[in-house]
């Protein structure tokens, strides 16, 4: 019993992990436009620290410009991995629980890349922040081929409390 109490207090005394700087750069709200599978969309992103700053929760929602009833939403959780250049993540979206995925990737000088595997395909997400501009690109990789899946350019925006 005393050992368990000591282990719990020792763990509590450690500094909490911190999401990597490249991930933390996404914090805040962003708005922009992009293209998903050739379809033009508007997109809004809100990212906020969670778990004492060890992770970043990111909510993205998009609407097809030509069909406002064509909506999509995703909830991502991003943080550092075991190595100093590692990024890990969890992806869930408006397609429901069967379309969730764990991702892994690496930091780079101006952002990070993280891949999520769905069946035979890997969706490689590239994130890059430059000042007030965010670029997010997704490439589908399957059986040795790569194909653009989505590409967004967003700018930092004021956060609106209570937005979905």
How would you characterize the largest beta sheet?
10 strands, antiparallel, barrel
Instruction: Briefly note the structural class of the backbone.
Output: mainly beta
Mean pLDDT: 91
Topology as a string of helices (H) and strands (E)? HHEEEEEEEEEE
The 3D shape can be described as: globular
Rg: 17 Å
How many strands appear in the DSSP assignment? 10
- Return residue spans where pLDDT drops below 50 for at least 5 consecutive residues: none
Q: How many DSSP H or I helices?
A: 2
Short overview:
The chain is mainly β and 164 residues long.
Main attributes?
single chain; mainly beta; ten-stranded antiparallel beta barrel; 2 helices; 10% helix
Detail the topology: elements first, then pairings.
Layout: H1 2-13, H2 21-24, E1 28-36, E2 39-50, E3 55-64, E4 71-80, E5 86-93, E6 101-108, E7 111-118, E8 121-130, E9 133-142, E10 145-157
Antiparallel strand pairs: 1-2, 1-10, 2-3, 3-4, 4-5, 5-6, 6-7, 7-8, 8-9, 9-10
Commentary on this structure:
The protein is mostly beta strands. The chain is 10% helix and 60% strand. It has a ten-stranded antiparallel barrel with strand order 1-2-3-4-5-6-7-8-9-10. Strand 6 and strand 7 form a beta hairpin. The N and C termini lie far apart (46 Å). The mean pLDDT is 91.
């Amino acid at each position: 019993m005393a050992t368990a109490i000591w282990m719990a207090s020792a763990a509590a005394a450690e500094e909490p992990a911190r999401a990597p700087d490249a991930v933390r750069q996404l914090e805040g709200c962003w708005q922009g436009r992009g293209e998903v599978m050739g379809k033009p969309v508007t997109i809004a992103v809100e990212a906020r620290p969670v778990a004492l700053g060890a992770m970043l929760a990111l909510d993205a929602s998009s609407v097809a410009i030509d069909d406002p009833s064509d909506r999509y939403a995703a909830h991502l959780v991003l943080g550092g991995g075991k190595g100093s250049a590692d990024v890990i993540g969890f992806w869930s979206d408006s397609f429901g629980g069967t379309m969730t995925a764990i991702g892994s990737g690496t930091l780079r000088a101006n952002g990070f890349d993280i891949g999520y595997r769905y069946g035979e395909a890997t969706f490689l997400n590239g994130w890059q922040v430059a000042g007030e501009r965010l670029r997010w690109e997704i490439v589908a990789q399957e059986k040795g081929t790569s194909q653009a899946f989505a590409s967004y350019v967003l700018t930092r925006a004021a956060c609106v409390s209570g937005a979905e």
